[in-house]
């Protein structure tokens, strides 16, 4: 179920959107405090944001730019400011789409569906764990602005960890996955790759994220420890 976060101070619009979205099967959260939206979005982690421009004590366009510094969550502006200049400013601040008020419910839903399809397809190639992002197409691991390139085996191992985060992964599981992906490794080669991955994680400022469970295997731990 997709989670949509609504940032609009008009109580009537809030109620209309909540009913409309929940009737379509979306989980909906209405923003209550407009002074801490970026922080709330980091906590809530919605799949999409509906954002008005005119808000109490904050400008929606500036707010969009602030959100973009922390998240790539798709943002659709839903606003009564219907000039081409306003739309351009919204897009330049990081918005993904622009809908004028009063909106037609069917049109708004179609735009939401299109943006979610587009971003979901994109996100399938990006796996995340806390502040780490694994780009499985570019074979790169990112921690904030720090990026490191991965070998084929390192990518397969990290992808398996990311897909099983919080679970104990045995060495046999990892080797079977590598063999399934036509990377034929033995026990010693796996150890070498795990060591290289840990070194690359440290090179981008991440320490002790892959923990060894003696006699069991490894686990991508729940809390990244930074040095």
Automatic annotation (TrEMBL):
Please give the DNA-binding region boundaries: 124-222
UniProt keywords (A-Z) are: DNA-binding, Phosphoprotein, Transcription, Transcription regulation
Please give the name of this protein. Answer: Stage 0 sporulation protein A homolog
Originating species: Blautia parvula
Span of domain OmpR/PhoB-type: 124-222
- Which Pfam family, any one of them, does this sequence belong to? Response_reg
Keyword DNA-binding among record annotations? yes
Name the SUPFAM superfamilies on file. CheY-like
InterPro entries registered for this protein in UniProt: CheY-like_superfamily, OmpR/PhoB-type_DNA-bd, Sig_transdc_resp-reg_receiver, WalR-like, WH-like_DNA-bd_sf
Tell me where in this chain the Response regulatory domain is found.
Answer: 3-116
Biological role = May play the central regulatory role in sporulation. It may be an element of the effector pathway responsible for the activation of sporulation genes in response to nutritional stress. Spo0A may act in concert with spo0H (a sigma factor) to control the expression of some genes that are critical to the sporulation process.
Record bears the keyword Metal-binding: no
Q: Which residues carry this modification: 4-aspartylphosphate?
A: 52
């Amino acid at each position: 179920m997709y989670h949509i976060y609504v940032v609009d101070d008009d109580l009537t619009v809030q109620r209309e959107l909540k009913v409309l979205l929940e009737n379509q099967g979306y989980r909906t959260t209405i923003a209550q405090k407009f002074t801490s939206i970026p922080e709330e979005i980091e906590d809530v982690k919605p799949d999409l944001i509906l954002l008005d421009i005119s808000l109490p004590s904050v400008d929606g366009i500036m707010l969009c730019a602030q959100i973009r510094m922390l998240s790539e969550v798709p943002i659709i502006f839903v606003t009564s400011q219907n000039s081409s200049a306003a739309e351009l400013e919204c897009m330049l601040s990081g918005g993904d789409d622009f809908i004028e008020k009063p909106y037609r419910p069917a049109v708004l839903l179609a735009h939401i569906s299109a943006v979610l399809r587009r971003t979901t397809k994109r996100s399938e190639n990006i796996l995340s764990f806390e502040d780490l992002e694994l780009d499985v197409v570019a074979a790169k691991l990112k921690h904030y602005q720090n990026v490191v390139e991965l070998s084929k085996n390192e990518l397969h191992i990290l992808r398996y960890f990311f897909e099983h985060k919080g679970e104990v992964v045995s060495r046999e599981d990892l080797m079977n996955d590598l063999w399934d992906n036509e990377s034929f490794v033995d026990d010693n080669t796996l150890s070498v790759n795990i060591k290289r991955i840990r070194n690359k994680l440290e090179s981008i400022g991440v320490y002790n994220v892959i923990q060894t469970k003696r006699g069991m295997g490894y686990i991508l731990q729940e809390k990244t420890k930074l040095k």
